[in-house]
Amino acid sequence: MSYPYPYPLTLPPATRSPLIPSASPARRIWRVGAYIRLSRDDGNDESLSVANQKKIISEYLESAFPGEYLFAGNYIDDGQSGTDYERPAFLQMLKDLDAGIIDCIVCKNLSRMFRNYADQGYFLEKVFPQKGTRFITISEPRVDSFLHPETIGGLEIPINGLMNDRYAAKTSLDIRSTFATKRRKGEFIGAFAPYGYQKSPDNKNLLIPDPEAADTVQSIFRWFIDEGMSKNAIARRLNQLGIPNPTAYKQRKGLHYHNSCPSKNDGLWSPGTISAILKNPVYIGTMVQGRQTVISYKVHQKVTVPSEEWIVVPGSHEPILSLDIFEQAQKLQKKHTRATPKTGKLHLFSGLIRCGDCQKAMSRHSSKGIVYYQCRTYQEKSRKRCAKNTIREDKLYCLLLSIIQTLLCTARSAGQLEDIIQGGQQERMMQDGQQERMMQDGQQKLNLQLSCLDRLLKARRRDLERTFAITDNLYADWKNGDITREEYLRMKEKYSAQASTLKTAIESLQTEYQAACEAESAPDPQLAAILQDGTISQLNRGLLITLLDHICIYRNKEVELWFAFADPGVSSHSKKAKKGL
User: Fold this and answer.
1) DSSP-derived 3-state class of residue 34
2) Mean pLDDT over all residues of the chain?
3) What does the alpha-carbon distance between residue 211 and residue 203 come to, in Å, rounded to a whole number?
4) Number of folded domains in the chain?
C-alpha cells in the first residue's frame, strides 16, 4: 500500500516481525519522545494546553511508565491542525524514528496525534509495527502497542479515530461558517493586520491606522501621484530612508510574522511590494476578504477564488487615503509607464501615447538631440503588422499645448471649466470662493506632508538612539564575560553599519522636511491661473493626467486625443478629437 506523504518513510525489510511483548519489558530501555499538539480550533481549553499536556506526560513517565526509558525530548506542534500531515514537529519526530533517536512515542490521546482517520490507520497498523515503534496514549482510549498490540486491531480504536475525524470535519464547517459571517459584516479575520493598520486593542476584528506605517503608505501614494516616481524609485527611496519593509516592520513590532519566503526577505522594499500597496483598497476603508480558500479540512492547500466571489465591504474601518487619491493611483497604474533611469521620474507623456493602428504603447527614442515616439510593433516585431507611425516629442508638445489652451478657453466660456479640472464631475459649478478653497486644500496637503515627515524623523531618531544604546552596552557585556570578543566585534560592526544607515536616512528626511517647509502653501500656480482666466503657458504631467485618457498617433502625423470627459468644443457626447500636424 502506497501513501502520498511528502516525507519518505524508511520502513524495515518485509521479513522483520512486528514487536512482540517480552516476558520482562522492564529489561529494555526505551528512547521516549513526547508528542504534543495544540490546535487553534481547541480555543482556551486549559486541559489541552501545551503546559498541561507536558505535565500529564511527565507525570506518567515518572510514575506509571512500564519499563525503563531515556527521555529524548518533546515534539510540540502549537497551532497545528491534526488533520494536516505536514506538521513541523510531527515530521521531525518521524525523521528521528528513522535515525533511531527515539523508538517510543507517548501522547495524551489519539486526537493529539491524529484527526485524520486515514493517517491513524496507516501509522498504527503499518508504519509503527514495521518500524518497531512503541506507541502509547495516556487518556482513553488507552493504547500501548507493545504491551497490548491487540487493542490496535479492535473496534474501539478505529471507531474513536472516525469520531475524531468527523469532529474535525464539523469543527471546520462551523469555523468556515463563522468566518463567512464575519467577512460579510466587514470584520477582519486575518492573523496580521495589513501594513498601515493594526488591530484594535478592544476588538481584534477591527482595523485602526498604525500612525508610523500609515505615514509611509501616504508617502508612497504622494510620491507616485504628485512626484511621478516609479515603483522602483519609490522602493529605493524608502530603502535610503531606512524604513523597514512590511515584514521587517511587523517583526520589529514584536509580531511573530513570517512570509512564505523568509530566506529571501532582507528587510528591503521591492517594486512588487509598492505595487501591492498601491492596489489595495483597504486604505480607503474597504475590506476585501475571501481571495483564497483551502481545498478541504484535510487538504490545506490554498487555491485562488474568482474575483466575483470575493467579499467586499466598503466603510468597514477608518481610511488612510481619500477615494480621489486612490482612484488616481489606479488610473496611473493602468498606463504603461517607464521612468528615467537616473531620476526615477516619469516622462511627460509616459503611458499616454499609443499607436492609432495597433493600439500598443509607443516607445520613446532620441537621436541627435531629437526625441520622438515610434510604434513598438513596427519597430520591434514586424513591419508588416503595423505602419511606421512616429511623431516628434517637441511637435506633439506644441500641438497639445495649443489644443488644451483652446479647450480650456471654450470650457470657461461654457461654464464647464471646473467640471474639467475636477475630472468630469458635471454637477459642480464655479464659485467665487473656489480659489480660496484651493489654497486651503493646498495648505492641508502641505500640513499632512510635514506631519508625515515629522513622524518619520522621530521614528528614525528613536531607532538611532536604540542602536547607540545597544552599541554602548556591548563593551560592558564583553568585559563582563557575557559575550566573547569575536561576538563583540561582529555585533559592533553590525550595529555601527546600522547606525550609519540611520544617520543617512535622518539627513535625507531633514532635507525633504526643509524643502517642504520652504514650499509655497498656495495651490499650483498653473492650476490657479487656469481657474482664474482659463489660460496655461506650459504643460505638466498632472494636468495631462487630469485632462487626457490617452493619445493615439496615426500615419501622416495625425493625432487623436481621448479626453477624460466630454469635449465641449466638439459635442456634449464626444470624448475624442483629431488634429493633424
Assistant:
1) strand
2) 77
3) 18
4) 3
Average pLDDT over residues 11-32: 55
Taking the CA atoms of 473, 478, 484 and 488 in sequence, report the sign of the dihedral they define: positive
**251 lies in which domain range?**
197-342
Per-residue model confidence (pLDDT) at position 345: 57
- Tell whether 141 and 224 lie within a shared domain: no
- Determine how many CB atoms are found less than 10 A away from the CB of residue 545: 20
Which of 168, 185, 209 corresponds to the end of one domain?
168
Rg of the chain in Å (alpha carbons): 33
Residue recorded with cell 507616485: 224
137 and 203 inside one domain: no
Asked whether residue 156 falls in the same domain as residue 201, the answer is: no
Compute the average pLDDT of residues 180-197.
88
Cβ neighbours of 186 (radius 10 Å): 20
In terms of DSSP bridges, do strands 68-78 and 29-38 run parallel, antiparallel, or are they unpaired?
Answer: parallel
Question: Which residues, including other chains, have CB under 8 Å from residue 536's CB and lie 6 or more apart?
Answer: 401, 404, 405, 408, 526, 529, 530, 543
* The model's pTM: 0.54
- Side chain identity at 233, as an amino acid letter? A
CATH code, domain carrying 330: 3.90.1750.20
Q: Write the CB contacts of 16 (distance below 8 Å, at least 6 apart in sequence).
A: 130, 132
- Tens of pLDDT, residue by residue over 312-361, are 999 999 999 999 889 888 887 876 555 555 555 567 787 788 888 888 88
**Do 337 and 201 fall within a single domain?**
yes
Q: What's the Cα-to-Cα distance from 270 to each of 267, 337, 425, rounded to whole Å?
A: 10, 17, 36
261 in the same domain as 315: yes
DSSP secondary structure string, 261-291? -GGG--S---HHHHHHHHH-GGGGT-EEE-S
Is the residue at 207 inside a domain?
yes
